[in-house]
Amino acid sequence: MNPIAMRALEQARARPAKPRRQWTCVEEARLRELYPNTPMPEMAKEFNRPYWSIYNKAHALGLKRSDDYLAGEHACRLRRENNPGVGSRFQKGHASWNKGISFISGGRSAETRFKAGTLNGRAAQLHMPIGTERVTKDGIRQRKVRDDGPPQKRWKSVHMIMWEETNGAVPDGHIVVFRDRDTANIQISNLELITRGENMRRNTIHRYPPELKDTIRQLGKLKRAISEVSREKQDD
C-alpha cells in the first residue's frame, strides 16, 4: 500500500464517528415550556442546537407558537395575516416602464451580430459532429444524435439506441441495464429491461451478507479519506 493510502487508512481508523445527539426527556420538557413564546435565537443558545433541529423537534412534538408570539415583533415570516412586503410588490395590471420599447442597437450593429446557429471561437473548436461517440466517466458509451436542444439531450447511450432499434421505446419507470454489468459489452443479448425499483434493489448494499456490508462501508470510508489527504497535499 502506498504512503498516502496508509496515512489515509490510519486517519480513517483514528477518526471517531460522531454519534447523533438525541433529545433527552429533560430537553423535551424544556422545549414544551419555551417554544410557544421564546424567540429562536434564545432557544438555540439554550439547547446549543441549530434552528432546524429545534424546528424539527417542535414539529414532531406538535408544538405551536402562541397567538401573543405571532402578534409580536419576533414572529417575522410567521405573521402571515400582516401580509409583510405587500406594499413593495407589483400590483395586478401593473405595466413595466420598458414595455414595448425596442432595445435593438442602431448603426451597423446588424452586420456584426452572430447569426442564429453559428459557432465561433472556443465553441467551434469543441464542436463534435452528429455520430461522434464518447465514453463517460462511468464507462457508458454515448453517441451524439443532435446539434440543437439542451446539451444533455444531444447525446444518447449507445446501448439505449440499440435497444430501441430492436424493441421500441423504453416504457416510463424502466431502464435498460447490462446483464453482466460490463458496460463495454454492448450486445442486444447482454441488455435487459427492468424497472427502476428493481435496479435500486439490485444495487443496494442490504442485499449483501453482513461481513461484506462492513467491507463495502470500510472501502467507502477509505476512499473518502484518500481524497481528503490528496486535497491536503494539493493545498500544501
End-to-end distance:
22 Å
Q: How much of the sequence is in beta strands? A: 5-15%
Mass-distribution shape = extended
CATH topology of the domain at 133-203: the name is: Homing Intron 3 (I-Ppo) Encoded Endonuclease, Chain A
CATH architecture of the domain at 133-203: Alpha-Beta Complex
- Biggest sheet features: 3 strands, antiparallel
How would you classify the helix and strand content by structural class? mainly alpha
Which bin fits the share of residues in helices? 40-55%
* Sequence stretches where pLDDT stays below 50 over 5 or more residues: none
Number of helices: 10
Q: Tell me, what is the CATH class of the domain at 133-203?
A: Alpha Beta
Reading side by side through the largest sheet, how are the strands ordered?
Answer: 1-2-3
Q: Name the average pLDDT.
A: 82
Radius of gyration, CA atoms, in whole angstroms: 29 Å
SSE topology string: HHHHHHHEEEHEEHH
Topology (elements, then pairings):
Blueprint: H1 3-14, H2 25-34, H3 40-47, H4 51-60, H5 67-71, H6 109-112, H7 121-126, E1 133-135, E2 141-144, E3 155-157, H8 158-167, E4 174-178, E5 191-195, H9 196-203, H10 210-235
Antiparallel strand pairs: 1-2, 2-3, 4-5
